[in-house]
């Protein structure tokens, strides 16, 4: 008797995660120029059921045909759709706690088309849609199971990796951004730079940072600069232009405008008020 034994490791990409299928929307389009607003800032997995056409978002145009996938990271931008022939049918799956990464780098474009060529993924998409439509007992658990296998197929056949965004990781990433701003607030900082440093989609970064700290990263940056400018106004004789330059503002006028919006005083008025104390 011959026996082949295969040991299955307990850990895998998704075993310790809470990837969750938030919603599924089915669309039937017969004309061009449909505008679709994906809603909550979750990652999206789009699957073309029938027809062909183009999806357009943020200047990126992705041609699609039957059984093609499209992936997007969390953002709330609109899609425009162009239908090639009679109609285009597709489904959009909203996925919580997930970011798509390309070759270990953040996905730069707003949307990306994927020709997966996976009979497994195609079959599971059919089953998933059927479960959603019939809504039998425990259908949510089955849908999430199908989704996880589809994502594994995506990872298996492409250079696309699914980065898990647990609450702990989200909080840790946001703390990294805050600490980076605390150390580098004097430098020229943009959302694109913060997105690159943190490997977070910039729209998702703004959403998560605001949820964790009550303000956007750029507002936090401006408040940090204003606080430092107060210290310089109180303790030095630097000119307003010199202070604006030292704390990272692009111009004296922008600094004065931001300072007044924050304190209801101009920088000179604030300096005089502190010298009178």
Q: Into which percentage range does the β-strand content fall?
A: 25-35%
Contiguous low-pLDDT stretches (5 residues minimum) are 6-16
CATH homology superfamily of the largest domain: Regulatory protein AraC
Q: Which architecture name of the largest domain does CATH use?
A: Sandwich
Over the alpha carbons, how many angstroms does the gyration radius reach? 25 Å
Biggest pleated-sheet summary: 7 strands, antiparallel
Helix-strand pattern: EEEEEEEEEHHEHHHHHHH
**SS-based class:** alpha+beta
By CATH, the topology of the largest domain is Jelly Rolls
Helix content: 40-55%
Note down, in words, how this protein is organized:
The chain is α+β, with helices and mostly antiparallel strands and 277 residues long. It folds into 2 domains: 145 residues, Regulatory protein AraC (Jelly Rolls, Sandwich); 108 residues, Homeodomain-like (Arc Repressor Mutant, subunit A), CATH 1.10.10.60. It contains 9 helices and 10 strands. The strands form 2 sheets. Strands 1, 2, 3, 4, 5, 6 and 9 form a 7-stranded antiparallel beta sheet that branches. Strand 3 and strand 4 form a beta hairpin. The chain is elongated. About 4% of the residues have low confidence.
């Amino acid at each position: 008797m011959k026996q082949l034994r295969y040991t299955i490791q307990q850990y895998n990409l998704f075993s310790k995660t809470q990837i969750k299928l938030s919603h599924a929307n089915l669309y039937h389009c017969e004309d061009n120029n449909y505008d679709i607003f994906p809603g909550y800032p979750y990652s999206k997995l789009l699957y073309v059921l029938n027809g062909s056409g183009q999806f357009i978002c943020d200047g990126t145009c992705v041609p699609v045909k039957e059984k093609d996938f499209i992936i997007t990271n969390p953002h709330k931008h609109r899609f425009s759709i162009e239908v090639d022939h009679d109609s285009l049918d597709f489904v959009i799956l909203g996925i919580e706690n997930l970011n798509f990464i390309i070759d270990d780098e953040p996905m730069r474009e707003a949307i990306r088309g994927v020709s997966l060529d996976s009979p497994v993924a195609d079959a599971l998409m059919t089953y998933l849609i059927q479960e959603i439509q019939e809504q039998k007992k425990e259908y949510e658990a089955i849908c999430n199971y199908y989704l996880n296998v589809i994502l594994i197929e995506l990872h298996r056949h492409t250079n696309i990796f699914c980065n898990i965004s647990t609450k702990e990781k989200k909080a840790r990433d946001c703390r990294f951004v805050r600490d980076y701003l605390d150390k580098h607030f004097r430098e020229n900082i943009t959302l694109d730079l913060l997105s690159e440093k943190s490997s977070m989609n910039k729209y998702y970064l703004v959403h998560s940072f605001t949820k964790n700290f009550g303000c956007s990263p750029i507002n936090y940056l401006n408040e940090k600069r204003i606080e430092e400018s107060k210290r310089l106004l109180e303790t030095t004789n630097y000119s307003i232009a010199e202070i604006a330059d030292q704390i990272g503002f692009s111009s004296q006028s922008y600094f004065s405008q931001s300072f007044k919006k924050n304190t209801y005083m101009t920088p000179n008025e604030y300096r005089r008020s502190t010298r009178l104390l």
